[in-house]
Amino acid sequence: MDFPLDVTNITIETDRLLLRAFTEADLDDFFAYASTPGVLEPAGAPLHTSIERTRMVLQSFLETKDRFAIVHKVDTKVIGSFGLYNDWINREEAYQHLKAKNIGYVLSKDYWGQGLMLEAVDAVLAYGFTTLDMDAFSIEHFIENPQSGRVIEKCGFTFVKEGTYHAKQLDKHFKERRYIMTKQDWDAR
């Protein structure tokens, strides 16, 4: 079941991160990680080759209000994005009755391998299940992006099925693995 979610006034804090709405002041930090090869492409988005492209994408984040900026508290800079939006779970008959959102994220290469995305996902799950009274979250990763798959499995998501995703901006099809986490699964962890 789709439901409106505006992250504008939501802030989620972990030991090392702050997840908050993007602002126009995040442009330079956003461009720094979005223009690094290998960061956006594994999520189905093209590398940003100009600050104008980043400005356009940032504007869409501000309008849709469904993406958090991931701020590294020590460095005080935006190091990634974390989206909550509608996707396959909202279209699957078996899950349409659930109050659910799909998770999507990217993280600056400079911060890979530190467990930061595990920390962010876990905090969003806790917030969604306790504060927003959600029933489930879905998530997926391209098969050619096993690093993201490891994050998903470490967080305790359950594999549902494989599918295909067409990344319009890259004009490319990706095989993906789809997962779910229900509130009951989260409570049982």
Describe what you observe in this structure:
30% of the residues lie in helices and 31% in strands. The longest helix is centred in the middle third of the chain and has 15 residues, at 116-130. It is built from 6 helices and 8 strands; from the N terminus they run ββααββαβαβαββα. It has an 8-stranded mixed β-sheet with strand order 1-2-3-4-5-6-8-7, with helices on both faces. The protein has helices at residues 27-34, 51-64, 88-91, 116-130, 146-155, 183-188; strands at 12-13, 17-21, 67-72, 77-85, 100-107, 136-142, 158-167, 172-182. The mean pLDDT is 94.
Give a brief description.
This protein is an alpha+beta fold and 189 residues long.
How confident overall, as mean pLDDT?
Answer: 94
In the CATH hierarchy, what is the class? Alpha Beta
Secondary structure category: alpha+beta
What is the H-and-E element order? Answer: EEHHEEHEHEHEEH
Instruction: Provide the CATH topology.
Output: Aminopeptidase
Strand content: 25-35%
What's the overall geometry?
globular
Largest β-sheet summary: 8 strands, mixed
Please give the share of residues in helix.
25-40%
- Give the assembly state of these chains: single chain
CATH architecture: 3-Layer(aba) Sandwich
* Uncertain residue ranges: none
Task: Work out the helix count.
Answer: 6
Spatially, the strands of the biggest sheet line up as 1-2-3-4-5-6-8-7
Rg computed from alpha carbons, rounded to a whole number of angstroms: 16 Å
Total domain count: 1
Termini separation comes to: 24 Å
Q: What's the total count of β strands?
A: 8
Name the CATH superfamily assignment: Gcn5-related N-acetyltransferase (GNAT)
